[in-house]
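[SOLVED] Need 3D model of a two-part complex

Original post:
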Amino acid sequence: MKVGIADIGMVSPPDVIRTSGLGSCVGVVIYDERVPVAGMVHIMLPDSRLAREGDTNKAKFADTGISELVHLLQARGAMLYRLKAKMAGGAQMFSFQSQSDTFQIGLRNVQAVKRELKGFRIPVMAEDTGGSNGRTIEFDPATFELHIRTVNKGSSVI
Amino acid sequence: MDYINKLHSIHLDILKEIGNIGAGHAAAALSALLNRAVDMKVPNVRVSSFDDMVELAGGSEREVVSISLRMEGDITGSMFFVLSLQQAETFTEKLLGQGKLSSDSESLRRSALQELGNILSGTYLSALADFTRLQVQPSVPELVIDMFGAIISYGLIEASRYGDKAIMIETILTELDEEEASETTGYFFLLPDPPAFRTIFQALGAE
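Solution:
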């Protein structure tokens, strides 16, 4: 199961779910250990208020993406109080000194995701965020392990 | 995505011409640097989803060398000159000469690549500025070696504020290999920020 950019997906064992080439984007996995279903969202921007036009893609933004994922999991029988999260990404690939609203977007994505998760009282069990390297991540809903691959810093499991 | 819906074929032709002029000058500069014939393919103007964009140049997870910059001035946007690892190695050998390099050869290779990217992207952008008569100032280019998707997605951030598609001008530089077959030398990806399109079309009297 592959999740694209600004996309959301659900997975059940024995399948795994992955998203590739995370730079400043953040991949967030939310799961309930008692229900065989997990979800992943690939977030691009911290806040839906950054959208210039009415934007209907909830998966793109941290504020709308996290709540959408929580609702999808609840619809599949997950309980809010049991939900846990793992996350990776939010790198700063470049150091351009930009005047734009998207300055330090990786860091702001990570902060926004954490703020949203906190709002739902969902604990972050593990994370590999920040830095300046790209990441591909894969989550196994049977073991709750998040596998992270980079090209410069090897692979890890969190 | 109003600005995308308003695109007509004349606009696509203008963007293609920008790729043509910009990369044409860059190909000539690369030719002069390497002292061999460098050609280019007809530019592609892609109006595609983000997922399609990151699958170019060998795919999202492919490790590539990129020299990237931000454009500021009358128009803003991002530009990437992307090379395969192998091509980057070939270039540094040609620029620095083969044989043993000293212990800090890695940083020497990096600065040679960085300088190559500086020259090529600077040439591309000044041709763009001449053609449109717009002021375009490039930032200091940055060399990054990482997954293509992680690099190019930075250029999609501004477009993502306007919708789920982006407009990219892609130009591929080519060289003839030993068997006279055309081989990809490098990719230029120019991603103007959404407000830049109107400025470009206005400047060329085609709004």
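Edit: Chain A has one domain: 8-157.
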